[in-house]
Amino acid sequence: MTPGATMTAGKRYRYYINTASMKIGKDACEVTRVSAGDIDAKVVALVRKILQAPEIVAQAVLEVQKIAPGADKQQTIQTLQSIESVWDELFPAEQSRIMHLLIDRITISPTGLKIDFKTKGLVDLIQSVLAVPVLKKAA
After folding, report:
1. Contact 39, 109 (CB under 8 A)
2. The pLDDT of residue 131
3. What pLDDT does residue 9 have?
């Protein structure tokens, strides 16, 4: 899908449109166009929820321990959990950067939304966003 927008009565509407439907026609796919605001909000909500999942937090601790064996586990956990409390205060560019670190592909179908995460996404997030304060204390 590719982003698009239109103006109606002075109001801007953002959407994602299926590129196959643009090239071949509306019958190329069951989902031809979706509201960007709705999809963006659902993706962000799912990623925020996943980052709080105990198994993801445990994996993050393991990854930080690989990077810096002396890093404080509790601080790692607190740092990861702090994303939730400061997410709305982050600049949109930083929110986008975090999403790009984690997400490989988003698939939209009539039955729902599927997010494929990057294999190294959590490691990259830890190294670029979370690990800096954790690693400084370990050094």
Report:
1. no
2. 47
3. 92
